[in-house]
């Protein structure tokens, strides 16, 4: 490997869900490269330097502990880290705009722009600047404009797009063994050299065949496309879950039969209460917005439908809960099992639990929420901003966050499973049944529980994409609950 390609210092701007784990694994796999992760939030950096990291990811703490203060540093001193680095990752947040043009759809590139300006002001030597945050197509061009318009003599910038495909909850495994690494850059001699340099970093632990290089726009669009395809599969199976409930087909059986076709594949066909997370909705909205801007309304409408189906699924599930509970949940105690957008993460961004809780709260329910990883204050904050009243007092009166599932279910009329945490499968449902109001209902929004066993205990069970055996219910309660 040629010496001139060697990178010794990397800076990453943004110590969030992407920047933190990515650089920790990079430091772990490249002990000779000094990684400095910087953030403007002193609180976040303090947490990265403590025993309680700001995000929960299986295996992450062990890696951080092993490399921290050796070749992995977390700091608020952004200028020094920029000055020293040969390569800079930008992994700041790119939320959906909540104001002005493109409100509710376009990505807000304010933080990316701030980071680019900071680099332009501070850098005293040439840098490779790598856009890692998920951004709209042609965002690299904007970064380039800012950097090159402020370029000092003897300082040159190469801009690369290197989208991150890690999924939360499996971030460490995804980073150690990714399906592919994508690097987009300008197809000029300088651009290709920059691609080769970043590729060299990844080649420390990833086989070269898995490192793909493209032009910048293909790389940016591929990230949006990958998320749109994944979300589309979930919306497709969720749309069929409604057909299953109405006809007696079982969506898991359909998913298995369909997924065994090797052209289709079995992954991402798990019907659920709906997809959440910081990426799917944001990226599709962004894609829709771009298509509209390109005067491609049919393409925009096609992808918009993936989001609309997800909204429909979340609302449909919530309405089913209300209908089954005799069309009123007013003052009923409902235990919510899981608030994170998926298992093995404490992240609640766009979690379907917010929609379900919001609808139940609007109908006057009292919620007892249990999630093994989400902090109580996060839940209150999410529900306050989602609530129609935005009144923190209303939410605090109607919601209790419990640290134990058995406390959450005491005197509850129903349990609603919103996240597929493994521990929900091994709870003592006999004990739970004993402490609940009767008839006791379980609404399994993730299709993870043993429904037959629950029915035998006496529960009324409803789930996604399957009409449950009413004979069992008849035996237990002498009535058939309304399903549709
Ligand atoms: C996603 C992409 O997978 C990842 O490549 C990208 O970098 C970021 O966005 P993430 O949002 O962390 O990752 O989680 P993911 O595992 O994709 O799940 C997203 C949502 O879809 C979750 O709410 C999950 O519960 C839901 N889901 C997933 C389903 O409802 N059914 C499935 O079959 C799979
Ligand atoms: P992601 O999921 O994309 O990683 P996060 O919101 O988890 O997004 O993390 C983004 C991080 O970037 C936040 O911790 C935020 O404080 C940080 N950040 C945003 N803008 C800047 C900036 N200009 N300089 C330094 N850090 C920034």
Spatially, the strands of the biggest sheet line up as 3-2-1-4-5-6-7-8
What distance lies between the first and last C-alpha atoms, to the nearest angstrom?
64 Å
Small-molecule components bound:
uridine-5'-diphosphate-xylopyranose, adenosine-5'-diphosphate
Find the count of extended strands (DSSP E, 2+ residues).
14
SSE diagram, text form:
Elements: E1 9-13, H1 19-29, E2 34-38, H2 42-48, H3 60-67, E3 72-75, H4 78-84, E4 87-90, H5 110-122, E5 127-131, H6 139-149, E6 157-161, H7 171-176, E7 181-185, H8 189-202, E8 211-215, H9 216-247, H10 251-259, H11 280-293, H12 297-324, E9 333-337, H13 352-362, E10 366-370, H14 376-386, H15 392-398, E11 399-402, H16 405-408, E12 414-417, H17 429-435, E13 441-444, H18 451-457, E14 460-463, H19 470-477
Parallel strand pairs: 1-2, 1-4, 2-3, 4-5, 5-6, 7-8, 9-10, 9-12, 10-11, 12-13, 13-14
Antiparallel strand pairs: 6-7
Helix pairs in contact: 1-3, 5-6, 9-11, 9-12, 11-12, 12-13, 14-15
The site of adenosine-5'-diphosphate (ADP) has 22 residues, from α5.
GO molecular function: NAD binding; UDP-glucose 6-dehydrogenase activity
Protein name: UDP-glucose 6-dehydrogenase
Binding site for NAD(+): 14-19, 39, 44, 92-96, 133-134, 168, 279-282, 349
